[in-house]
Design brief:
2 copies of one chain form a homodimer. With 251 residues, the first copy, chain A, is α/β, with parallel strands linked by helices. Helix content of chain A is 34%, strand content 23%. Chains A, B: It comes from Runella aurantiaca.
């Protein structure tokens, strides 16, 4: 059974304020927790159902974290998932280390992505396309929000995030010696089907309603657009990120 | 003020049973309702806030539907949207007319898409890429579910849906005289970046967890795959549909 104190602690981590205070976040769901166990994270606590424990004893034993057994109901009440699931973990957040595109690499930059579901989806897509670094504006939703972690479907274990004031950040990286191409999606840009991507670079995706802001826009060297063939006004930012990364990988 | 009976009627349309009984569905939100007013649909009733009425009087007057004014609160209570919005409509469903790919055209086929948000997103993406016909398996979630209509962001006015038993449907269309290419996404298929798409065809997307079922698989001539470069296990079906259609349009 989960103690009152523990349940209270788990609840508190739904709020950014307490995640910052404890330098910890929630990972919910059997699949995400299993991915976590093989990843390079400092796990503090794992709560699982008896069934999950029986099926994964080997993976759970001999690990340095505290392990608790709870019922599916207790787990559901402790976490944010609406459906019962079999596992939940409390994990130490990573330091906000500076990230940049090394030679031959691409980094995704997010300018003011507000929706946690969108950020999580973008992390998953970045992971699919082999991008391991995402730089977020300080107005972008919190990477460690349980909805972001859930929507990333385990990809949060393979993709790193770095929050920065984007103007200062772009100022710094655009003069790197190996040369840097900065791409950004706009309604009026070059058709992405005719775009060739340089060796090393950054791809900027903008806010759900307003796109890339004017201060960040000044740093974008290549304005690109996903061509439209029908009547829809726009694409969701996660969808757009996937299409852009697919075109980038296609070369 | 909305009468009790009217509120009850609006509520009932959240359920498929009553949508079928009344041959009607809900369109919620100012933006969707405005798109509806210029589209080819038989609108039965429009409920708007006074503010919305003032701003759109011309568009709302002289139309053959019943018009009601309500408060934002009443609208929120009558509909399914969690946030208040300014307009809601009741619209007659279209007949389930047979759809197929005419010469030079592509049709999207959905095999067992269960999530309304996914179906709505796919309708929006199809619309962006100029696809106007979607054929759904009978197990696919209801096109007229308010969540589908909302997620389509007005694209439901430009894209038609047709529900069919897919085996019989594919049996019928694969022998059409103008020749038909049937493409389907699988984990182990030909790299979509190296795929060329024929002049006329069908693209099948499968269920969120299980992909395309074995009976439908038999009809797929070209098995295609979105290449993966990183660690994520899968892509959401809406994301996958966008990437496939972008590759198709790229030629």
């Amino acid at each position: 059974m989960l103690s009152k104190n523990l349940t209270k602690y788990l609840h508190s981590l739904q709020l950014k304020k307490f995640r910052l205070e404890h330098n910890a976040f929630l990972v919910e769901g059997a699949k995400s927790v299993l991915e976590l166990l093989t990843a390079d994270f400092q796990t503090e606590l794992v709560v699982v159902t008896e069934q999950f424990y029986k099926e994964n004893t080997q993976k759970l034993e001999k690990q340095p974290f505290r392990l608790e057994i709870a019922t599916a109901d207790e787990l559901a009440r402790a976490g944010t998932l609406q459906t019962n699931d079999a596992a939940l973990a409390v994990v130490k957040t990573k330091d906000n280390d500076f990230l940049y595109a090394e030679k031959g690499e691409y980094v995704l930059i997010l300018d003011d992505i507000r929706d946690p579901g969108n950020l999580g989806t973008i992390i998953r897509i970045a992971d699919w396309y082999g991008i391991t670094k995402i730089v977020c504006s300080q107005t972008t939703t919190d990477w460690y929000n349980p909805k972001v972690i859930a929507a990333s479907k385990g990809s949060f274990t393979r993709v790193r995030g770095y929050y920065a004031e984007l103007t200062a950040y772009l100022e710094k990286v655009r003069n790197m010696e190996h040369g840097t191409q900065i791409y950004g999606t706009f309604l009026e840009g070059k058709n992405i089907h005719q775009t060739t991507f340089g060796d090393t670079g950054y791809i900027v995706m903008g806010n759900e309603s307003n796109g890339i802001g004017p201060t960040v826009e000044q740093f974008v060297i290549h304005k690109i657009t996903i061509p439209r063939f029908g009547g829809a006004e726009s694409l969701n930012v996660g969808i757009a990120a996937a299409v852009v990364l697919d075109n980038w990988r296609r070369g």
